[in-house]
Amino acid sequence: MLRSRVITAMVLLVLLLLALFALPPAAWAALIVVMVMQGAYEWSRLSGLGRGKRYLYCLLTLFLMLGLLWLDAGAAEVQQINTHLAVYAVSVLLWLIVVPFWMKGGWRVRQPVLMALTGWAVLIPTGLAMLDLRAEDPSPWILLSVMCLVWVADSTAYFAGRRFGKNKLAPGISPGKTWEGVAGAVFGVSVYVALLWSFSPYFSGRVALPALLLISWGGVALAVCGDLFESAIKRQAGVKDSGTLLPGHGGLLDRIDALTSTLPLAALAMLLHKLG
To answer: What residue spans define the domains of the chain?
Structure first.
């Protein structure tokens, strides 16, 4: 299993880097639409929808994504910004208000419509953020930098938790996660951000290091929240993984759970910084 996980992770990393740096904007947008649809299919499975309703949900997701891209293509810049702000506002509402209450209260949502709406609130802002962050100069380094932050947090949390973990973070949702793992993630991300700030004129010229560290710690909290939320949804569905797409890793949602909570808010912060 470990060998399969490592091989899959390396292949995915190579493919992602090739797509990030080589694909033209239209092809990148098409790839993101496909990823969002795959995520929607896995979410519909976790929601308990039947096969026919899963395909309908994916089709509606496709229409929503294409509609968003169509609005972008034909709108003035002010209209584009307002549309993106509205989409990211949904993500803020979800991750900063709804999800904390959801997990704290141990909600078990069985209504298909509510679960479908939640899935769109998770996936569509993530897809839009992957388009916006990749388009931001110096493209595509901004998107890659944010994704690396999440990966560093995930990896250091895993190893710190394995080595030092004693105090459970959320035993009712994900028994393997510990507060020591979170501390390891904060430490790992702090080192990563310090190196990024030291060697990247883009960041050092725009944000002071203490402020960037505070932002990155918020990113760790969001990444943990995204990870725990998907774990809660899987526990409700009674499954270990969201799918079987990736050997040794489960489904797409299993790989992007922490990104769904961090990328939209990073894109929102970038957009607000440009406006301000």
So the answer is: 2-275
pLDDT at 8: 80
Measured between alpha carbons, how far is 43 from 117 in angstroms, rounded to an integer?
A: 11
Q: What is the 8-class DSSP label of residue 241? A: S
3-class SS of residue 251: coil
* C-beta separation of 101 from 161 below 8 A: no
Tokens of 87: 């989409």
Residues 212 and 78: their CA atoms lie apart, in Å, by 28
- Please give the single-letter amino acid code of residue 183: A
Sequence-ordered list of residues with C-beta below 8 angstroms from that of 156, at least 6 positions apart, any chain? 184, 185, 187, 188, 189
Query: Assign residue 65 a region: left if phi > 0, alpha if psi is -120 to 50, beta otherwise?
Result: alpha
| CA–CA separation, 80 and 69 (whole Å) | 10
Predicted TM-score (pTM) of the model is: 0.95
pLDDT less than 50: residues of the chain: none
Say what the pLDDT of residue 180 is. 97
| pLDDT of 107 | 85
pLDDT at 206: 84
Nearest to 151 by CA among 231, 254, 223: 223
DSSP 170-186: ETTTEEEEEHHHHHHHH
pLDDT of residue 2: 62
- 1: part of which helix (H) or strand (E)? none
